Amino acid sequence: MSLRMVLQRECEKPLMKEFHQALDNLKLARRQLDFSDPEYIDTTIFNIGASESRLAAILRQARKERVSAW
Q1: Which of 17, 43, 47, 56 could disulfide-link 29, Cβ–Cβ 3.0 to 4.6 Å?
Q2: DSSP collapsed to 3 states, the chain
């Protein structure tokens, strides 16, 4: 991530910051699927579902508050 992107994220609204964190968590959960031990695959899939649900909740909240990216 470039310095400019880091600085932009620091100046964002709290909901936008939470959105980006949730998106990063979802990406990480999906990447973990590739390296997950077969015994823990259920947990990894659960984490992906939880990350998707959190992101969906943040998007609903953003719509409710009429937050826009531009």
Answers
A1: 47
A2: CCHHHHHHHHCCCHHHHHHHHHHHHHHHHHHHHHHCCHHHHHHHHHHHHHHHHHHHHHHHHHHHCCCCCC
